[in-house]
Amino acid sequence: MQYIILNFISNLLGLGNASTPLGIKAMQELKDEQKAKKNATRSMIMLVVLNTASVQLFPSTVIALRASYASESPADILPCVWVVSALSLTLSVLSVFVFERICDKRRKNLK
């Protein structure tokens, strides 16, 4: 559980390079905990989706890049980042539920 929390915190702070190894460890932890062999469990899929959505409260890398290119106010992008992060998170989680429902219906039809 600690790797999952650290992964989300590093994503929230905009530390993408730091969150990658934590995400890998979190996925291994979920795999061991849920005894998943070949197929990804719902928790594993949700972890990947949340990492891909990359919700950020403080996009430190982007702000640092803007500052290095002499932007007058590098943090002006924060409201846009928050809106886009919220939208991407919402759409990502909804897509997991929609595809899970579609897969469940297909499984029922095959039986």
What does this structure look like?
This is Spore maturation protein A. The chain crosses the membrane at residues 44-69, 81-99. Keywords: Membrane, Transmembrane, Transmembrane helix. The chain has 111 residues and is an all-alpha fold. The protein has one domain (2-110). Helices cover 76% and strands 0% of the residues. It has helices spanning 2-12, 16-34, 42-53, 60-68, 78-110. α1 packs antiparallel against α2 (16-34), α2 (16-34) packs antiparallel against α3 (42-53) and α3 packs antiparallel against α5. It is elongated, with a radius of gyration of 17 Å. The relative contact order is 0.12.
Helix/strand order: HHHHH
Number of strands: 0
- The residue ranges in which pLDDT falls below 50 over 5 or more consecutive positions are none
**Beta-strand content estimate:** under 5%
Percentage of residues in helical conformation: over 70%
| Total count of domains | 1
Protein structure class? mainly alpha
How many angstroms does the end-to-end distance come to?
36 Å
Outline = elongated
The number of helical runs is 5
Transmembrane segments: 44-69, 81-99
Keywords: Membrane, Transmembrane, Transmembrane helix
Organism: [Eubacterium] siraeum DSM 15702
Protein name: Spore maturation protein A
Short note summarizing the structure:
The chain has five helices and no strands. With 111 residues, it is mostly helical. This is Spore maturation protein A.
